[in-house]
């Protein structure tokens, strides 16, 4: 993982790491995932390797989770047409769950997905520098309960979508997602199939990364074209999920979701995706970009290949959450963020988590220090991957600022945290 939001392209053993990092209901299908907790045929086991745990959510509600397969029968598969004629996605919906009626807790990753994630072609090695097989990723369990009934005390639920970094699975921010759901939100996490290093579908079928046809490109124009396609596919995925929300709300959630109050957040490529989706689709009312550059440059962002969201700005609120590597969290030191800042008409704020690195806004900040204490450390060292910020303080700050932002923008509840520096979180530095 890099210390600043940048893009690196190497061979297939190192994923493209980037600061990027619609159909009617009858034209698609959605079925509950039967693959949760199942090991795919021949998947290697890491049992006996170091394990780690996620912290409990802080909100007043228990958390439920339902996994769904969505098929867009109007859109051809853009990355692997030989594998599927149509675009298929896996999503999970995390929501407030009724107490005392919970099902089994949902694993952080299904067994087959965890085995691939921790293998030589998985995101643990490619994005984090973890040695293949060095951790038992399947042993981590989230705090959501599978298919638990929704807690009626939570009322109608604002909807927040989550998009992970390039190569990462939709589960790679489970601690933050579960926490937001525990505060009364329906959080929809989206896997970007054939771009994530692995996505497991019902029946145990594993779809692995296919965004490179042959060797990853090195020519700047080819790199830029690939990044443009990545973001375009991600935005199309997100808009498809938005299209499906009303139908899913009626058929699976009894009308408790409120698609009229929809926000989005993401990390790295997912942060770029959140901002670009807001630019392209007015249904997303508010967004958080966690350390994602907003231009199509295969290296240090230089402002030469800006996205439309950076060139045009937004008329709705966006929170930029940066990391501390080489001062990159300040919008004035990132050309794509600086362009967005100049051009946006909506509310905006920029905070930087002191002592953080690019992976600090993911589950890596919580899990990797635990694994390192057991001898499983990233190749570049723990500080290079997740910085020097205390894991509990990083988690507390991320949770507080994301929840405060969506409470303010989707609920009209303002705790004042985003008005300026706070004694509660001296780690968070505001840029003006």
**What's the average pLDDT?**
89
Helix and strand pattern: EEEEHHEEHEEEHEHEHEHEHHHE
CATH class division: Alpha Beta
**Main sheet properties:** 12 strands, mixed
- Straight-line N-to-C gap: 27 Å
How many whole angstroms does the radius of gyration measure?
20 Å
What is the overall number of helices? Answer: 10
Helix/sheet category: alpha/beta
Residue runs with pLDDT of under 50 for 5 or more positions: 1-45
Number of domains: 1
CATH superfamily: Alpha/Beta hydrolase fold, catalytic domain
State the helical fraction.
25-40%
Number of strands: 14
CATH level-two architecture: 3-Layer(aba) Sandwich
At the fold tier of CATH, the topology name is Rossmann fold
Sum up the overall morphology in one term: globular
Question: Percent of residues in beta strands?
Answer: 15-25%
Pfam families: PAF-AH_p_II
Protein name: Esterase
Keywords: Hydrolase, Lipid degradation, Lipid metabolism, Signal
Outline the structure in words:
The protein is an alpha/beta fold. It has a single domain (25-431), classed as Rossmann fold (3-Layer(aba) Sandwich). It has 10 helices and 14 strands. The chain has helices spanning 111-117, 123-128, 174-182, 220-252, 269-280, 308-312, 335-343, 364-373, 382-386, 391-411, and strands spanning 28-32, 62-76, 86-97, 105-107, 141-146, 157-163, 186-190, 198-200, 206-208, 257-267, 284-290, 318-323, 348-353, 428-431. Strands 1, 2, 3, 4, 5, 6, 7, 10, 11, 12, 13 and 14 form a 12-stranded mixed β-sheet that branches. A two-stranded antiparallel ribbon has the order 8-9. β10 (257-267), α5 (269-280) and β11 form a beta-alpha-beta unit. α3 (174-182) packs across α10 and α4 (220-252) packs across α5 (269-280). The longest helix is centred in the middle third of the chain and has 33 residues, at 220-252. The model is unreliable at 1-45 (pLDDT under 50).
């Amino acid at each position: 993982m890099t210390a600043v939001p940048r893009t690196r392209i190497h061979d297939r053993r190192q994923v493209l790491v980037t600061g990027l990092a619609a159909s009617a209901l009858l034209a698609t299908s959605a079925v509950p995932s039967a693959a949760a907790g199942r090991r795919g045929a021949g998947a290697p086991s890491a049992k006996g390797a170091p394990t780690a745990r996620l912290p409990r959510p802080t909100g007043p509600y228990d958390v439920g989770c339902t996994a769904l397969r969505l098929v867009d029968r109007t859109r051809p598969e853009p990355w692997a047409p030989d594998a599927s004629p149509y675009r298929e996605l896996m999503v999970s919906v995390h929501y407030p769950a009724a107490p005392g009626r919970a099902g089994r807790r949902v694993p952080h990753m299904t067994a087959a997905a965890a085995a691939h994630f921790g293998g030589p072609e998985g995101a643990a090695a490619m994005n984090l520098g973890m040695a293949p097989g060095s951790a038992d990723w399947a042993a981590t369990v989230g705090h959501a309960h599978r298919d638990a009934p929704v807690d009626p005390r939570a009322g109608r639920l604002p909807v927040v979508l989550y998009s992970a970094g390039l190569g990462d699975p939709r589960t790679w921010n489970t601690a933050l997602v579960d926490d937001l759901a525990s505060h009364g939100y329906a959080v929809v996490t989206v896997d970007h199939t054939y771009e994530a290093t692995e996505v497991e579908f019902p029946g145990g079928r594993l779809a692995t990364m296919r965004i490179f046809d042959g060797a990853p490109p090195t020519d700047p124009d080819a790199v830029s074209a690939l990044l443009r396609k990545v973001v375009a596919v991600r935005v199309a995925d997100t808009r498809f999920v938005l299209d499906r929300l009303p139908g899913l709300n009626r058929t699976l959630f009894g009308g408790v979701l409120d698609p009229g109050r929809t926000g989005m957040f993401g990390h790295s490529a997912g942060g770029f995706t959140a901002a670009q989706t807001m630019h392209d689709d007015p249904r997303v009312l508010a967004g958080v970009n966690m350390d994602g550059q907003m231009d199509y440059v295969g290296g240090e962002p230089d402002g030469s290949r800006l996205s439309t969201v950076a060139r045009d700005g937004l008329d709705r609120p966006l929170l930029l959450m940066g990391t501390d590597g080489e001062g990159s969290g300040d919008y004035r030191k990132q050309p794509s963020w600086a362009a967005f800042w100049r051009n946006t008409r909506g509310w905006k704020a920029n905070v930087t988590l002191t002592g953080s690195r690019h992976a600090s806004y993911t589950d890596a900040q919580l899990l990797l220090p635990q694994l390192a204490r057991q001898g499983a450390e990233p190749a570049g060292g723990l500080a290079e991957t997740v910085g020097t910020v205390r894991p509990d303080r990083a988690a507390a700050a991320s949770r507080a600022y994301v929840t405060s932002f969506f409470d303010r923008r989707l609920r009209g509840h303002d705790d004042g945290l985003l008005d300026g520096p706070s004694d509660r979180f001296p780690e968070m530095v505001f840029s003006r």
